[in-house]
Structures are given as C-alpha cells and as structure tokens.
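HUMAN: Please help interpret these tokens:
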Amino acid sequence: MKLGVVLFFVVTYIVNGEVVVLNDANIRNTIDNNKIVFVNFYAEWCRFSQILKPIFVKASENFKDNTNQIVFASVDCDKQPTIAQQYKVNKYPTLKLFRHGQLVKKEYRGQRSVDAFTEFIKKQVESTVKHINENDNLDNVLDSKVRNVVGYFNVPQGDEYDNFQKIASALRDECHFYVGLGEWTRKKNIAGNHIVFRDANGEKEFNGPIAGYQHLLEWANSNCVPLIREITFENAEELTEEGLPFLILFRKVGDKKTEEDFTSVVLKELGDQKGAVNVLMADGKKFAHPLFHLGKKEHDLPVIAIDSFRHIFPFPKYDDIFVPGKLRQFVDDLNSGKLHREFHHGPDVKSTGPPESAFGKLKPSNNRYSLLKDEL
C-alpha cells in the first residue's frame, strides 16, 4: 500500500528541477492547495518553449522552500490537450498565474528571465491590504473612483480573517482592499466581524457567513469585476485572453443616454451571464474597423454586435433592446449555436407542423353510403 502511494506521487508529481508537471489527475489539487501557482503552457516542438524551459526551472529554484505558498508548474499542451483547451492556450509558451485557485485574467507579459520571474512572484505574495484606523475618515482614505472592499476584524486571526486575506490576494487586480483591526472595530462589529464594498455608488455589506470562503468569493467577485467594461486598444488583447465572446456596444463617447439605456437592459437581462460573455462598450469612432465589417459607419451609431472570435454578429436593430427579452435572446442564440448556424446556412426554417395528409382526401365521404349500404 505504501509503495503504491509513493509510486502515485512520483508519477503525478514528476518535476524538472522545482517545476511540477501538471496533468488531468493533479492540476486541480495543485492549484487549489497553493497560494501562488505559476504555470508554463508549452509545446515540445516549439523553439521558444525550449528556450524558456531552463530559465523557468532556474527561477523556480529560488522558491523551493515555500511549501504550500509558491509552485512553478508546467503543462505539455500536446500531451494535455484538455487542459490547454480549458485555459484557452493557443500560442506557446504561455504563462498564466493562479492565486488561491483563481486564474488571474492577465497573462504574464513581462521579461522572460530568471530575475524578472523571481521579482514578479515575490510581488505576488506581498500583501496589498492597507490598514485603516479608528480616526480615519473613509471618504478621504478610499478612492471613490475605484472599487474598494473594507474588512473589520476584532483580531487578525481565525478562518474569517484568513478568508478575507485570501480574497484580497485573489482579487488584488480588481479591487482595493482595506482592513481595520482591534478593539475599536467592536463598535462596528456588533454582530461579529463584517465586510463592506464601497464605490462611487455607495456601500454594500456582505450578509453571508464570512467563514464560507466560496460565498465570500462570489460576493466579492460580483462587486469587484463589473458586468460592463470599456474596451480600448490598450486592453483589447487582455480581454480577448479571458476567452469569452464579446457583446459590444459601439457608441459615440459622451452619449450618456445610450450608455444608461444599454446598462439598464444588461443589468436586467444578462446579470447571470458574466461567465458566458464579456459585455463591453467601445468608442465607435476609434473602432471603425469592426464597424466596417458590419457594414456600418459612425453615423449608424449606436450599434450592438457579438464577436465570437470566429465571426461578428450584428444585433439587427438597436432599438430592439427596449423589447423585453430581445437582447437576452441574442446572447442565448449565440450560446445555442444558432447565430453561427444561421451565419453559414441562412435563417432557420420556421416549424409549421406536419403537412396535411393527401391520402385522407380519398376516404369515403360522410355523405355517401358505404359499400355494404347498411346505414339504414
């Protein structure tokens, strides 16, 4: 029995230097049980992958003593196509980071050297949580232009405090995190430790169990990652790397009425679609090229379209967003494959039911005698 366990460990965690080789059997366990996992997705036939491999291994050796904290890992995308597909890897080598089990949306795009990797990972484990004091006026401390999460804890220990720190690490790129500690927080923590979200629209309190990590993560994620974002030339590639189709509103910048109308409809109809589609707004003047492919120009704005990364599908008529369910149906048609199918084969034929029987007309008339003439 012991030998079997040892063999399983050896087969599952074969390492090159200090790099863990990931496969279907160990990837989830590795990602979930370490604070930071830095993954090199590579292909053996790729020359650039071969150049990177010894550099990646050398950098990993600087963190070999950080048990359950930092792991350097690799995925051979030819041997593990399911993993490569899951994380939408289509170029090699690709470097992705996981924090507390959560995939960081942005790929690593820094210099590919031992020193650069080492410095990057060291920064990942540094806490970005800022401390607040009893006399601090949060209106002055917090930047209302960004999204903020504030935790109040009697003592800096326990499951609830640990969960807050994990959330702060996982979402450090999306929100600013603050923590208040000590006796003064008891005035606020009448019902126990508590956490609030603050932005320009006000304050929202987390009402679930702070000891329940998944519930807290979902709440923080829903507040820290907005449902609608602005796409620019600077962030377009990063948004593409998230792997979700784009639902884009092309509008004239400053057209507040259109922005408000679109936002209102999206919040009503697509609130549950954050993991299925990226809802974006774009400057129709700057993004004239995709509009050209839609046969549209600046004077046609506003225009709505879905870009699946294979095709771009126009929403037939902008004003139809005011028809309840119309925008949701557009997204559902993407998810069902209908938009793609109709793009290639034309509109689906409407179902009219089975055609009327032709042979039924040949049956004896109700106004005639039968052959036996026994009706009387």
Summary: The two ends are 91 Å apart (CA to CA). The domain at 129-224 is CATH 3.40.30.10 (Glutaredoxin). The first helix runs from residue 2 to 12. The chain has a mean pLDDT of 86.
